[in-house]
Amino acid sequence: MPCRIVRVPVELSAEGLIAWLSGRKNPGNEINANVHAILAAVKKDGDKALRAYTRKFDAPNLPDRFQVPGRDIAAALKNVPEADLCILREAIEHVRSFHARQVEQSWFTTSADGTLLGQMVRPVDRVGLYVPGGQGGETPLISSLIMNAVPAQVAGVTDIAVISPPRKDSTLNPYILATAALLGLTEIHRAGSAWAIAALAYGTKSIRPCDVIAGPGNIYVATAKAILVGEVGIDMIAGPSEITILADASADPDYLAADMLSQAEHDPLAASLCITTSAELAEALRKSLARQLEKLPRRDLAAKSLKDWGGILVVESLDAGLELVNRIAPEHLELAVDEPFALLGKIRNAGAIFLGQHSPEPVGDYFAGPNHILPTHGTARFSSALSVQSFCKKSSIIATSKDYIAQHGGKIARLARLEGLEAHARSVEVRLEKNIK
Question: How many domains is the chain built from?
């Protein structure tokens, strides 16, 4: 039995479901303490600490230089099959096209008295992108590199550093290097985990500090980013992957099982849920999960994920299912129902929404164009996917005239004094006095 079936609200309440899922959040005091120590060491000792951590945990013979030579990046294009390069180019094109629509323009308004107000949109100066290396560097998250780099480039960021944990022989997977080359990225460093995030935040002799750090990673990466919030810009604090599927009796249980497993194979803490109105579908789905699980290379990992954090939830109606979905606020939501567009307007909280049985979550992960770096742990209630805006900052523009001060200065001074800020009031009144004279 890879996955439990429960009836909501009979066997489990909505509150109980949310409380259960929240058990994936806390990394523990030990991890927090370890990450604080790592950040402090890199801040104090720079390259020396970064090199020591990298040699201890990843590449024992890492050379003194962290940056990958340009010739290695160029060579990677020759070491990756042309058919794969074509797929990567097409994926990059789709992601770039989607994100181009997110660009915001600076704007200004003027009034009859000469007042000018507006907003100036500018990219940040420098961005650091973390790219997980995967299992020993052999399953590199090249899609994450694309999803991070493209919106930064579309935003107008020209200074981009990539950092990724090296393989045991001190190299990076050629697919990471080739993807970087296709994206036009030339600054790539070899380091991983929390010490890589520290280097991007604080800077070392070899790696200049960044204004924004983006990219997914393990619990050490996520914890480091959480600690650094406020010192640098952070894309989001992403937790383990998750999917929620809302299905009616028309859904194909084999499709649903495959989609749940696509998340379960990520991480033992990944959450894969299916909410359905059909008890018959629930049973068929459980059987399909068991069959498909046995064929997976990562079946032990996926089985643990399903056992601990998977569930098939049987509800009385689609409206009840929709309410659960909005309470969960999932990272990925699939609407595997007969008329998915009819339900779209009722979805308030979800990172990405996949409509219909032929829109599986991996389409969004790799190829369609929307960003796959999404809010997890219910944070879709108040946050959004990584976007062009993640790499921009906005400055308010204010230009008021002598006439404006004459007309509104007294009101402004009154508001300042209501807050007990006399100097604020006088800042306006000194101008009023000079205008009168």
Answer: 3
Domain boundary among 207, 234, 261: 234
Task: Kindly report the pTM of this predicted structure.
Answer: 0.93
State the catalytic residue, choosing from 99, 189, 266, 332.
Answer: 332
Domain check: are 363 and 426 in the same one?
no
User: Is 294 labeled as catalytic in the residue annotation?
Assistant: no
Q: Do residues 33 and 180 share a domain?
A: yes
For 97-129, write each residue's pLDDT tens digit: 999 999 999 999 998 888 999 999 999 999 999
Catalytic-residue membership of 331: yes
Catalytic residue of the set 187, 242, 265, 331: 331
Domain extent, residue 270, equals: 5-25+239-368
Residue 321: enclosing H or E segment and its boundaries? helix 318-328
Question: SS3 for 205-262, per residue?
Answer: CCCCCCCEEECCCCHHHHHHHHHHECCEEECCCCCCCEEEEEECCCCCHHHHHHHHHH
Choose one of 234, 257, 275: the last residue of a domain. Answer: 234
Predicted confidence (pLDDT) per residue in 239-263, tens digit:
889 999 999 999 999 999 999 999 9
Distance, CA of 115 to CA of 405 (rounded, Å): 10
Q: Are residues 220 and 99 in the same domain?
A: yes
Q: Which of 176-180, 266-270, 411-415 has the lowest mean pLDDT?
A: 266-270
Average pLDDT score over the chain: 94
